[in-house]
Amino acid sequence: MLMKNTDLSGRIVRYGELQPCRTAFIDAHTPGSDQKENFTIIGGGVSESPDQHVHIDIPHGFNIGAAGQPPKCRNSLHSHRTAEVFFVLSGRWRFFWGLHGTAGEVVLEEGDIFNIPTGIFRGFENVGTDYGMIMAILGGDDAGGGVIWAPQVIQEADAHGLVLSEEGKLYDTKKGESLPEGVGKMPLLTEEELKAFPEPSAAEVIPDFVARYWDIAAMAHEAPVKVIGETGLLRDRPGFEVDLVTRDSATETPEQFDRPTVLMPFRGHWRVTWDGGSTVLAPGDTMSVPEELDHAVVPAMSGESALYRVIGTQDPAGPTRAD
User: Fold this and answer.
1) Rounded Cα distance, 104 and 166, in Å
2) Distance between CA 128 and CA 136 in Å, rounded?
3) How big, in percent rounded to 5, are the helix, strand and coil portions of the chain?
4) Looking at the whole model, is its pTM more than 0.85?
5) In the chain, what are the domains?
């Protein structure tokens, strides 16, 4: 149990203080993807660049990150070995999947959440009219050991001066960098290996892996809604659970969890209080609450209020396990 006057300032990341990395991944020079900004908020994430700033390095059993992109900017096709969950903080986003991004797609609005099935290639682009931001939750402390890129992404990046080593590190030939002696390029997946990546249709993915904000909010009158979890709307056990808390389902009664908890507001301002301290969170802020700390989370102002709460579980990070 944490003592009174616990200082949590080091566990709060303000939206306005986020430090972007514009060279986080192999497609940082590829036209159409060269304006994106990546943020690693909690945990080491999956960045391939030493320039990526980590805001909170305390292990949680999952990672929190974000991607900010101007209109028409896209994130290239890739896959993960553990969960990758996105919710839209701002803007309008198209997610697409399959080796060539043609197997299926869905467009998400603010507050919508997508638990992307593991083992498929996926990408996304900002299809709104302004700079947009999506927040990401990645399973595991090491986020599955990195990113698996579609072969054409590696080839195109190489043509624009970025080379990925077999160790998963980026080298920029435009800056005079080259692979160290004895270190080879990241090998391309073979035709046989690519057969292991499924190509599900939108009809197969959307019902079980996408939840719309207004549908969830309509259910959050008396208690938070479990969006992702063994008994969630999107049934899965990826090493964490995700709840939606709204004004109607918030409570002033302090509660605690035996695992690390992360609060991520996207509508309204929220007051978090604990014994000896308090703070107000705004949309885009991220707060890590230590395990076994009594705390209350309530709206700080009138108007629509909603936040996603991520809680670590005992389930090991791994492939999607919906059933």
Assistant:
1) 30
2) 19
3) 10, 40, 50
4) yes
5) 9-210 (2.60.120.10), 213-312 (2.60.120.10)
